Amino acid sequence: YAKQRTQFGSAIGAFQAVKHRLADVLVRLEFARPLVFGAATTMAPGDIAAAKVTAAESAYGAARAALQLHGAIGYTAEFDLSLWLTKARALRGAWGDPGVWRGRVLAARE
């Protein structure tokens, strides 16, 4: 979408601020991936807590960044973005407060 949408005569993906925002999203998602795979492999409580807090925050942050990038059209049901944002909110709510999971990560490391 960032390559297609144009503002001021160029694609919004060409703007440095948009590139930085998308790079931050990618880094957070790539950081969450090995934590999720590691938690699935070890099933250790500390690893599961770390994966939950990181994956939930990364997914929600990615959905919020995408919504800002899309603007008002991201809220419409015609775009899958509204579905992904709803799923990310539900995931975050179902897994509970991130502070609790951070506490469990710290408790498991001690």
Note poorly predicted spans: none
Rg over CA atoms, rounded to whole Å, is 16 Å
Overall mean pLDDT stands at: 90
Number of strands: 2
Largest sheet: 2 strands, antiparallel
Name the beta content range.
under 5%
CATH class designation:
Mainly Alpha
Q: Give the class from helix and strand content and strand pairing.
A: mainly alpha
Q: Tell me the distance between the termini.
A: 45 Å
Number of helices: 4
Please state how the strands of the largest beta sheet are arranged side by side: 1-2
- Principal-axes geometry comes out as elongated
Brief sketch in words of this structure:
The chain is mostly helical and 110 residues long. Helices cover 72% and strands 4% of the residues.
Provide the descriptors you would attach to this structure in a database record:
4 helices, 72% helix, mainly alpha, 110 residues, 4% strand, single chain, Butyryl-CoA Dehydrogenase, subunit A, domain 3
Structure, explained:
The protein has 110 residues and is mainly α. It is 72% helix and 4% strand. It has helices spanning 16-42, 45-70, 81-94, 98-109, and strands spanning 6-7, 10-11. A two-stranded antiparallel sheet has the order 1-2. The protein is elongated. The termini are far apart.
Topology:
Blueprint: E1 6-7, E2 10-11, H1 16-42, H2 45-70, H3 81-94, H4 98-109
Antiparallel strand pairs: 1-2
